[in-house]
Write a structure and sequence with these properties.
3 copies of one chain form a homotrimer. By secondary structure, chain A is of the alpha+beta class. The first copy, chain A, contains 9 helices and 12 strands.
């Protein structure tokens, strides 16, 4: 028997099956520095241990999206090594902060299966849970991917498509226990705008553009131990659909989030991802821009110090966002590569 | 009102105005490792906690230039986002070491203004001060930049050009309190040459050349949270003056300083930057070389263990420095990109 | 006298001479994060402090090859700055784990010299020893390099070629003291295969390919403070033999080792390198693949929890390894760039 892991194919998944993913990973200040160098984020809570301590944290927490990517990366060898496409995310919640020294592990439960009519692929739904060394859940989310069958003749499983919420209800959002953002230092963030100042429907251009280099997205994606072949192997991808390596969709999310500091400087935490679409592929050499629309505002139960903004962030490539390019009648406007719907937390007055 | 920060224009600055810059930043061993990977410095004091402890430090301090870049980076969104050119530095002093765990913040005071005769731009002089979490000044310097006016019709301010020293006087140099470099281990640095061995007028070729990749200078510049658009956005710069991204001038300074280990191995600290000119732009793919002339030597008040060398370091691109290319009758010799005048500290016999 | 170090030439070496190399280097979690980002390793012992603690370590040790590269890098300015070729390694043993906070220094002893008949070069054999801050040996190895003579007329030294073992005997392998891999968590590594499951002669394709970018290999090599000119200077190399920068051979070793996780997931430690050949040069843009043959198995004296596998890992460029390309009648099959013979340690049932 070969000892090489070829990943799971569609017929290897069963509803109810639990996959424990390799490898647990201790997150460090080194990871935070790399994330800083790769994305250039400036949110004060993650940038400054002093700001974090004033808010009641032991030290600066790891960027929420870095924690997400690490939790996500572990699922790739078991869930999506033979994926044709990442179809979506839903019901993703950030439940506890991650600090340097914490060790993250991920487990996934298969919650749905649906073979495609061509008999060659099927959709696998998993709920993945990232836990720390105390077995506390830090991140929990659903994703679904289209996976190849090993054998076209393999019998289709009973179709079982889970019901997923269109968005995480505000009542399910969690602000970290033991924290308080009363008197949050807006001088440290450089922006006076707090929860109270944002209006539903408001659009914010994040102004800057960042060009992605091959070395950057590969370093980021390896940092997360994400092994998806399309990101790393020019020899194979050079002969493939695009003729080049495809950038991990999460890389674009992290860039858009970092860019969003300009306009959302005090939105220091990601509380939930309601859904996300990678509308078009992104490649080395592309310049990424972003803008955000405020979809909703919500108070958090028991917290008068911090509130939630539901945000829809669009990222584009090679197209500035001053005119807010987004959806059009059918699909998306030219240049749009990401349509992300998420809840951020931001201090209140 | 838009929440996007468009940066200050010339008419937004007033002499005496104090700008508190976002975002405070906790420096870590992760930052030090990235700086190591990006520049390849080998100075023993920053490389080895053991060498640092023997000199009286609690642990290895952060490279002086890394601290400078972090302090500097914070000023960009407020001071130079709409700059046409960085014109100069002066009177930059390094007053206290920075250690992993320290949190750096920067504040700038506007100390001079001078509108240009074209009415479209003006020169802004700021004194920027980097402080740690104990509110101690670690770095203090003046820089002046040419900034665009938002509105050509805006009234010119009264011209007020500060008097700046041509160089930091040796009497203003500070060797870190509580340290002693007596019996400094030259075996650990690989070079026997100490303060006593350098002569004024001596020229040193640093020999090696390092090619800069786009990913490298962008990672470095984001590590400092420097948001100057010209370094990151190929989409826009591709249509601009050079057709490509411009490398942050500080990147060349750091490369030249790292290269200078070969010939100045024991010059472990930067005490002051007297001035610096970025003579020509530097781009991805350029190979940087450097050489140094010893301009002056000075004793430090109350310290017999360590002295100061005033150094003039030239960096070139795509031109080795064995023949010491520098100034010529008018301007600079072909290939010169940096003319830096600084004080380094180096142990004495 | 110039203060620039031009490196040693063949006639500068004497048998018995001891070279103390600059610069001691404190290894940190930042270095580990960079190594992670650059190579994407997934071995659980180095990835998770929790896994390491269960095995009796104080925390996650630094990757063995990262420690090796740091120990090796220090030797370059003194041993191989004027080398024409790295000819080989032998008798390399990993004797103690390295942890974040440890400071590594390297010393080399010249153990052999042999001038070449052309009178222009000679072979220098050195035994290099890496020690931590407690003066304990962590890595010890022999390498030999062909070095230029400064002066062709310089008298040849007496020929003195050391006897070197073809491989490190299993009786000389060391499993870290104070550790136990009993009940090693194969769920954390994602593979059930332990020492007992591997058979001599077994071949394992590591499946994935990773394309190397210029920024990546230069950042890695600077992280190790390795100053070999050929890796960094496109200006000079552009005019040289290959027209481009050459990638540090150790970079390929680290990539191959990281890739080997797929098939050797539980082979968490490198105990010895028996020998290695860099069969062909590797350049930016090349995609590296790897496969491994099990050459031998050995028990370790006094340890029933962990055993040794002698492995021969081949790396290729731009050639997948499903058909196990290796040696042919004369030399190597097309695409092979590395032939590495090493001992790994892997838990037993």
């Amino acid at each position: 028997m070969t000892k090489t892991n070829a990943g799971n194919f569609f017929e290897d998944f069963k509803v109810g099956q639990v996959l424990r993913h390799a490898t647990p990973r201790t997150v460090t200040e080194g990871d935070a520095a790399l994330y800083q160098a790769l994305f250039g984020s400036r949110f004060s809570l993650q940038s400054s241990a002093e700001v974090a301590r004033k808010a009641g944290y032991a030290t600066a927490p790891i960027d929420d999206m870095l924690a997400f990517h690490i939790v996500f990366g572990k699922t790739v060898p078991d869930v999506s090594l033979n994926a044709v496409a990442n179809l979506g995310y839903a019901d993703c919640r950030f439940l506890r902060p991650v600090f340097p020294g914490d060790t993250l592990s991920t487990e996934s439960k298969v919650i749905g299966l649906k073979e495609n009519s061509n008999g060659e692929t099927g959709v696998v739904y998993v709920r993945s849970t990232g836990r720390n060394q105390r077995d506390e859940t830090v991140i929990d989310y659903v994703r679904w991917v289209m996976v190849r069958k090993r054998d076209k003749a393999a019998k289709a499983p009973e179709e079982d498509v889970p019901h997923l919420p269109a968005a995480v209800g505000a009542e399910h959002l969690v602000a970290p226990a033991g924290t308080s953002f009363k008197g949050f230092d807006t001088g440290a963030s450089g922006s006076p705008h707090l929860w109270d100042d944002y209006e539903v429907g408001e659009k914010i251009d994040h102004a800057d553009g960042i060009t992605i280099e091959e070395a950057e997205h590969m370093m980021a994606t390896r940092l997360y131990q994400n092994t998806a072949k399309v990101h790393f192997n020019q020899y194979t991808e050079g002969k493939g659909r695009f003729g080049r390596r495809l950038i991990y969709g999460g890389h674009v999310i992290s860039l858009a989030r970092a860019l969003s500091f300009n306009g959302l400087s005090n939105a220091v935490l990601v509380a939930a991802i309601n859904g996300g679409r990678h509308v078009a592929p992104c490649f080395g050499g592309d310049t990424v821009f972003a803008w955000t629309e405020v979809l909703d505002k919500a108070e958090l139960k028991g917290r008068s110090d911090i509130g939630a903004l539901r945000l829809r962030t669009f990222a584009t490539k090679d197209r500035p966002c001053a005119d807010f390019p987004g959806v059009k009648e059918k699909g998306y406007e030219e240049g749009v590569i990401l349509d992300l719907d998420y809840w951020a937390l931001i201090p209140r007055r």
